[in-house]
Write a structure and sequence with these properties.
five-stranded antiparallel beta sheet; 2 helices; mainly beta; four-stranded antiparallel beta sheet
């Protein structure tokens, strides 16, 4: 590097501990630094874990409802006894893990049947490989069966086989997560098994394409936001994978001139939504290029 290039290294020790967990405060070594007209900043390297959740209460994508039909609740009869809210704990979930949590919830609600030692579930999330989308399957709860109702359940089989309903709310982002519009699935009474394919791609790993790195002292007039200092590709990575990115060439961005005690770095996804880091093992290497050879 030229002699007037200065390295700035941000680590997990600089992470601001707050509800966001996506920002870093770097204090200049001498307590202050002057940024001159024409000085610029580039992203040299990012090394970190992919450690942010995809389902959280903060994302407002962690809740939906299902409706269960039985002997006292034929289709259209809805009350607290057959309406179950599913609230997903904050975490990183694959489609398979989301389905497992749905099954766990149905066990707790005693809304399943038993086939010997096996449990039979009537709602299922699965991935459709042909269309690369999530699909929902609602199996009709039978009016008669050799399966048994679990001990402790207070419901009986419906008079007519009926598929349970999954409700996607219009006032949260669960529909965006799974690629479904707000509404009831199935939207009307179904007396046979019902399958529905998402209308858009589900927002699990597939839509995580890049990590945006911003700096409050950058004035990048060619981007939105103007504080953007670099973009890190993360396509194909999953939760827990290591991100180690060095750009092929350094892109320098003009900085705001003035006297500063610190600079702030923040991390966002490709839609400029803040990510909440669950691990602080991170190194962000920046390169400050002076317009003139000054300290």
């Amino acid at each position: 590097c030229p002699s007037h290039d200065k390295s700035l290294i941000i680590t997990g020790n600089d992470l601001i501990i707050d509800n966001q967990m996506n920002s870093f405060k770097y204090t200049f070594p001498n307590g202050t630094a002057r940024i001159y007209e024409g000085d610029s900043l580039a992203l040299m390297n990012v090394n970190m874990y992919m450690s942010w959740f995809n389902i959280t209460s903060a994302f407002n994508n962690n809740e939906f409802t299902y409706i269960w039909w039985d002997d006292t609740h034929p289709y259209g009869t809805i009350d607290d006894d057959n309406t179950f809210v599913v609230t997903i704990p904050d975490g990183y979930y694959t489609i398979e893990q989301l389905n497992e949590f749905l099954q766990y919830t149905m066990i707790n609600n005693l809304t399943y049947l038993e086939d010997g030692d096996n449990y039979v579930y009537f709602l299922q999330f699965e991935y459709n490989l042909t269309y690369s989308r999530l699909q929902l399957v609602s199996y009709a709860i039978p009016s008669s069966t050799t399966y048994t109702i679990p001990s402790g359940a207070t419901w009986g089989l419906p008079a007519t086989a009926t598929a349970p309903v999954l409700q996607v709310y219009s006032d949260n982002n669960f529909g965006t997560l799974i690629g479904f519009d707000a509404g009831d699935y199935p939207p009307s009474e179904e007396n046979v098994d019902y399958t529905c394919l998402g209308t858009t791609d589900s927002n699990f790993d597939a839509n995580q394409s890049s990590l945006l790195v911003t700096c409050n002292l950058v004035n990048n007039t060619m981007s939105i936001p103007s504080t953007l200092v670099g973009s890190v590709p993360i396509t194909g990575l999953s939760f827990g994978d290591v991100i180690n990115y060095t750009p092929g060439s350094f892109a320098f961005h003009k900085m705001l001139p003035g006297q500063f005690n610190e600079l702030y770095i923040a991390l966002y996804d490709q839609d400029y939504q803040p990510i909440k880091l669950e691990r602080d093992e991170i190194t962000i290497h920046l390169l400050l290029r002076r317009a003139n050879d000054v300290d």
